[in-house]
Specification:
The chain is mostly helical. Helices cover 69% and strands 0% of the residues. The radius of gyration is 17 Å and the shape is elongated.
Length: 72
């Protein structure tokens, strides 16, 4: 029983701190500039909710804008 409880807590912590924030980063990267106002408010709620996991992943993610390609 103790092992099952420990595995369950580990799985939930991993999902909360790693898996769901990584999915949220990918979702925000894809939808940030085309989201409606309701969707943007929902994104802000998700950032608030998953803030600890986002802080853990932030040093490893680079979302700087890509350089523009100017046609000559």
């Amino acid at each position: 029983m103790l092992l099952i409880t420990l595995l369950l807590y580990t799985a939930l912590a991993g999902a909360y701190l790693l898996v769901l924030p990584a999915a949220l980063y990918a979702y925000m990267n894809a939808r940030w500039y085309v989201a409606s106002s309701f969707e943007r408010a929902f994104m802000y709620f998700l950032v608030f909710f998953f803030f600890p996991g986002l802080i853990l992943l932030a040093p490893f993610i680079n979302f700087r804008p890509q350089p523009r390609k100017i046609a000559s």
